[in-house]
Design goal:
The complex is a heterodimer of chains A (about 150) and B (about 400).
Chain A: H1 7-13, H2 24-31, E1 36-40, E2 46-47, E3 62-66, E4 70-79, E5 94-101, E6 108-111, E7 126-134, E8 137-144
Chain B: E1 13-20, H1 32-47, E2 56-58, H2 65-72, E3 79-81, H3 88-100, E4 105-112, H4 148-161, H5 165-179, H6 193-198, E5 201-204, E6 206-207, E7 217-225, H7 226-229, E8 237-245, H8 262-273, E9 283-286, H9 291-301, H10 309-315, E10 317-318, E11 323-326, E12 330-331, H11 337-340, H12 347-358, E13 371-376, E14 383-390
Parallel strand pairs in B: 2-3, 2-4, 9-13
Antiparallel strand pairs in B: 1-7, 1-8, 4-7, 5-6, 8-14, 10-11, 11-12, 13-14
Helix pairs in contact in B: 1-2, 5-9, 5-10
The chains are: A mainly beta (about 150), B alpha+beta (about 400).
The complex binds zinc ion (ZN).
C-alpha cells in the first residue's frame, strides 16, 4: 500500500504539487489510484480542498474518503500555453475542466479530459474518473461518459 | 449575516494627492523601488508634504514599507503595513490607521513590475529573476488556482448566459479608447472588435487582450484626515466608504456561483455604509484585471441583470468615442483600466478617480465630476470597493 511510503518519498513522487499535512492523504491515495476527498464523520459533508477541520461543524474528524468519480463538467477551458508537463503539448489546446462530483452539490475538482476531441468537451457533459501516469506516478483524469448525455 | 453597518470614518479621511510614474509594457532598466520612490516623491510634492510630516507608510508587494522609509529618508513613522493587493486593501488600512490615530499622514503606494510569472520576457533580465512569485497559479496545467480561475469562470459565464467573446471584447475596446487620452497608459493604439477577436488566444475563452498588461510603473498617494488635507495644496478627495468583501467558500473551484462571492458583499456594504450609488455617480471604475471581472462587477453593482452586461455596454456605447458612456454621461475606467493603462492592481483606478475629482484629469476630465465608485478585485479572495467624493 502506498500509505506506507515515507513522507520524503511521497514528496519526491509528486514534485510539481505543494503537499502538506492537510493534503498528504490525497496524494497517497493517488499512488493507489483512489481519489480521496475529505468527509466530515460528524455531519457527513464533503469538503475541498482538504483541511484540518470541518468548516460547518468544526469537527476535527474529517476523513479522506474515496469518491465514486462520476460527475458533470462545470467549467471547461483550453490552454494555448501553460506550464511544461510530461505528455502535454499545447499545439493542440489542452483541455482543463472543473468537475462537480456527484457526491455533493458544489464539490468540485479539476483535471484534464482524455480520449475526447476538444469540441466534445463541453460544460454539462457527464464524466468519470480514470488514471494515467505522469513522471512515473498516477494522475487522476476524466473521460467522457458515453452512456450519459449532456446535463445542464 | 447581520453586519450592524457602521461607518464612523465617513468623509473624515481624505486622499490629499495622487501621482503616477506612468506605465511601460517593456522591461525598463530600473528597479521596482525606483518607480515606487518616484511616484511617492511626486505625490508628496503635489500635496506640499515633507518627508518629516509622513508618520505612516502603507506599501504593497514590493518595496516594503521599511524599504520605502529608508529610500526616502522618512525620519519616524508610528504605523506601517504591507497589505496584500488590490489597492483598496491599502486604502482601507489608511482609513483605519488615520481615523484611529495610529498615524496622521500616510504615504501609500503600489509599484507594478514585470516579473517572470507575468511576462516570459522578464526571464531574460537577471535582475528580475528574484522578486515575487505570486499569481502564477500552480505548476501543473490541470490546476485552475490563481489567475486561471478567472478563465474557468469566464467559461461558466458564457455557458450560463449564452454570451459571446464580443461581450468580453467590449471591455477591452472601452479601455483602449479611454487610454488613448491617457499619457500614463502603456497601450494606446486603437482597438477594433475584429482586432480583439484575432488576438492571440491564451486560455480559451480568454485571449491576451482579456488579461491585464504587465507593466513597470507605480502610483502613490498621500492620505490624511480631511481636516488636515484641507490645509494641503490640492482639493481633498473624501473617502465616503471603503470596504473589503469575502465569503467562506472563496477558492477558485468551490466558489458557489457568479452571484455568490465577495463582490455581492462589497456592493451590500458600500450601499449600506456610503451616501451614493450607481444612480448618482459621475465615473465608475469596474476592476478589469480580467475582462470577465468587469462584466461581473457591472452586473453585481446593479447596472443590469445577471448575464446582461454585454447588452448593457452595447446600449450605452458612444460610437463617436468608441467607448461606454452610461446614459451618455458616465465613463467606465476613463484612464484605460488594467487592460490598457497597465496592471496596477487597482491603484490606477483609484489614482484616476482622485485626479478626476480634483479636476486635473487633462483631456479625460469628466466635467463637474463629484462622485466616483471604484469596485476592485475579482471573485475569490479580493473583492473590494470604495466611494470617493470631491470635498465641498
Ligand atoms: Zn462537519
Amino acid at each position: 500500500m502506498a500509505c506506507e511510503i515515507s513522507d520524503e518519498d511521497l514528496i519526491e513522487r509528486f514534485p510539481a504539487y505543494a503537499i502538506d499535512h492537510d493534503t498528504k492523504a490525497r496524494y497517497r491515495g493517488w499512488l493507489d489510484r483512489v481519489m480521496l476527498v475529505d468527509r466530515c464523520r460528524n455531519c457527513g459533508t464533503w469538503h475541498e480542498p482538504p483541511g484540518p477541520i470541518c468548516p460547518l461543524c468544526w469537527s476535527t474528524d474529517t476523513v479522506p474518503t474515496a469518491v465514486g468519480g462520476s460527475g458533470t463538467i462545470h467549467m471547461a477551458i483550453f490552454l494555448h500555453q501553460g506550464p511544461p508537463a510530461e505528455g502535454v503539448d499545447y499545439t493542440t489546446p489542452y483541455p482543463v475542466v472543473v468537475v462537480e462530483l456527484d457526491e455533493q452539490a458544489g464539490l468540485r475538482i479539476s483535471s484534464t479530459v482524455v480520449g475526447a476531441g476538444n469540441a466534445d468537451i463541453v460544460i454539462g457533459r457527464r464524466v468519470r474518473l480514470d488514471w494515467i501516469e505522469r513522471g512515473g506516478a498516477p494522475m487522476p483524469v476524466f473521460r467522457l461518459d458515453d452512456a450519459d448525455g449532456v446535463r445542464s | 449575516m447581520t453586519p450592524g453597518w457602521r461607518n464612523p470614518a465617513k468623509d473624515l479621511v481624505a486622499i490629499a494627492s495622487a501621482a503616477t510614474t506612468g506605465f511601460f509594457a517593456s522591461n525598463t532598466a530600473r528597479s521596482q523601488l525606483s518607480y515606487a520612490a518616484q511616484a511617492a516623491i511626486a505625490a508628496l510634492r503635489a500635496a506640499g508634504v515633507s518627508a518629516a510630516e509622513v508618520d505612516g507608510i502603507i506599501g504593497s508587494t514590493s518595496p516594503t514599507a521599511s524599504e520605502m522609509q529608508q529610500a526616502l529618508g522618512i525620519p519616524v513613522v508610528t504605523y506601517f503595513a504591507n497589505p496584500p493587493i488590490p489597492f483598496v486593501n491599502q486604502l482601507s488600512a489608511a482609513v483605519a490607521a488615520v481615523h484611529s490615530g495610529l498615524c496622521n499622514v500616510v504615504l501609500a503606494y503600489h509599484a507594478s513590475y514585470r516579473l517572470p510569472w507575468n511576462t516570459s520576457a522578464s526571464l531574460k533580465d537577471p535582475f528580475r529573476r528574484g522578486g515575487m512569485t505570486g499569481g502564477a497559479g500552480a505548476a501543473v496545467p490541470e490546476s485552475v488556482s490563481g489567475s486561471v480561475g478567472y478563465t474557468a469562470w469566464a467559461s461558466r459565464y458564457l455557458h450560463e448566459y449564452g454570451g459571446t467573446r464580443e461581450d468580453l471584447g467590449l471591455i477591452a475596446i472601452n479601455g483602449r479608447s479611454n487610454a488613448a487620452n491617457n499619457p500614463a497608459a502603456a497601450l494606446r493604439e486603437p482597438l477594433t472588435m475584429p482586432g480583439y477577436l484575432d488576438a492571440r488566444m491564451i486560455r480559451y475563452p480568454l485571449c491576451i487582450l482579456d488579461m491585464d498588461i504587465a507593466v513597470d510603473g507605480a502610483d502613490a498617494f498621500v492620505i490624511t484626515t480631511a481636516e488636515r488635507a484641507r490645509d494641503m495644496r490640492l482639493k481633498p478627495v473624501l473617502i465616503n466608504a471603503a470596504t473589503l468583501g469575502m465569503t467562506s467558500t472563496s477558492s477558485e473551484m468551490q466558489t458557489p456561483s457568479l452571484r455568490e462571492h465577495g463582490q455581492q458583499v462589497v456592493v451590500e456594504s458600500l450601499k449600506a455604509r456610503g451616501d451614493f450609488w450607481i444612480d448618482d455617480c459621475d465615473i465608475y471604475f469596474p476592476y478589469d484585471g480580467f475582462s470577465i471581472i468587469a462584466l461581473n462587477w457591472i452586473e453585481n453593482a446593479g447596472f443590469c441583470g445577471p448575464g446582461e452586461a454585454g447588452e448593457f455596454l452595447r446600449q450605452h456605447w458612444d460610437s463617436r468615442t468608441n467607448r461606454v458612456l452610461i446614459d451618455g454621461r458616465v465613463p467606465l475606467n476613463p484612464h484605460g483600466g488594467s487592460l490598457s493603462e497597465g496592471a496596477s492592481q487597482g491603484s490606477g483606478h483609484i489614482r484616476e478617480a482622485v485626479h478626476q475629482l480634483q479636476g486635473s484629469a487633462g483631456d479625460r476630465q469628466v466635467a463637474g465630476a463629484a462622485r466616483a465608485i471604484v469596485t476592485a478585485g475579482g471573485f475569490f479572495f479580493n473583492a473590494q470597493g470604495a466611494l470617493l467624493r470631491a470635498d465641498g
